[in-house]
Amino acid sequence: MSLVSSTALLQTARANKYAIGAFNVHTLEMLQAVVEAAEEAQSPLIIQSTVGTVKHLGADYIAAAATVAANRSSVPIALHLDHCSDFSVIMSCIRAGYTSLMIDASHSPFEDNVAITRKVVEAANAIGINVEAELGKVGGVEDDIVVSERDALLADPDECAEFVERTGVHTLAPAIGTAHGIYKGEPNIDFDRIATIASKVSVPLVLHGGSGIPDEQVKRAVSLGMAKMNVATELRIIFSDAIKQVFAENPDENDPRKYMVPAKQALRSAVLAKMELCGCAGRARDFR
Ligand SMILES: [Zn+2]
Fold it and tell me: Residues at the annotated binding site for Zn(2+)?
């Protein structure tokens, strides 16, 4: 099938209390690995790229590869632009064929975040693609700061409701204590806050910073309303470690296939495990 908007995928996920894994890819092999995992798991899939990867590979190359994958695939696949604050990059990705995007104006004051997000939602609605936005500051939260400071960085549930109402955004990433990268200790997730936000906001919620959250905490967050889980750093590490291992064993290797195939396989296994964890494995059936 063609690439689809992530909106219906994520609404169905939230209604059925599972989350769809959204996996950041940086190379063709990484993209193929996540698609193969989705096929094997019979899972809906969101392929993501960062703005950096769009600049590195080109939105058109990424969209072309994702389109081929979707056309060949029996599971629904969306192509999403992760954390973007640049309107021109958003427009170039829409033009290239992305079916989902994140406008991140979370570092602007609330009123500006509303205005900027509203503008992107209007553009996206014209062609039926998904918009995700962020409230609070994901990744700005460190373990050792005092509670009042931490509170100020997390998303306010009433503001979440007002934000969704005023912007018409399709999916919301509220800061609830997760961070990007790999956690030094355990993440400090505010589960009560997720529950309160979910009670006030009916759109699917997005869990950022999914690398290295203990499995039980992921399941709890998903049960409370998180319908999309972003995983980036962990995948990069697994992919790179597999390549490093090939060179450790054979420093003279010079055939890219010889190190890309094991890297693909390692990534595919890791993505399969995340799909089981999120509960999206087997859920492609929801879209037939
Ligand atoms: Zn993020």
Answer: 83, 104, 134, 180, 208
Q: Let me know: does 279 contact 222? Beta carbons within 8 Å.
A: yes
Domain annotation for the chain: domains and CATH numbers: 6-232+267-287 (3.20.20.70)
**215 has catalytic annotation:** no
How many angstroms separate the alpha carbon of residue 29 from the centre of ligand 1? 22
Judge whether 112 and 104 are in contact, CB under 8 Å. Answer: no
Residue 43 CA to residue 40 CA, distance in Å, equals 8
Span from the CA of 248 to the centroid of ligand 1 (angstroms): 32
CA atoms within 13 A on the CB side of 164: 21
User: CA-based angle 284:120:280, to the nearest 5?
Assistant: 15
Amino acid letter, residue 44: P
Convert the pLDDT of each residue in 68-112 to its tens digit.
999 999 999 999 999 999 999 999 999 999 999 999 999 899 999
Rounded distance between C-alpha atoms, residue 48 and residue 129, angstroms: 14
**Is the whole model's pTM more than 0.70, yes or no?**
yes
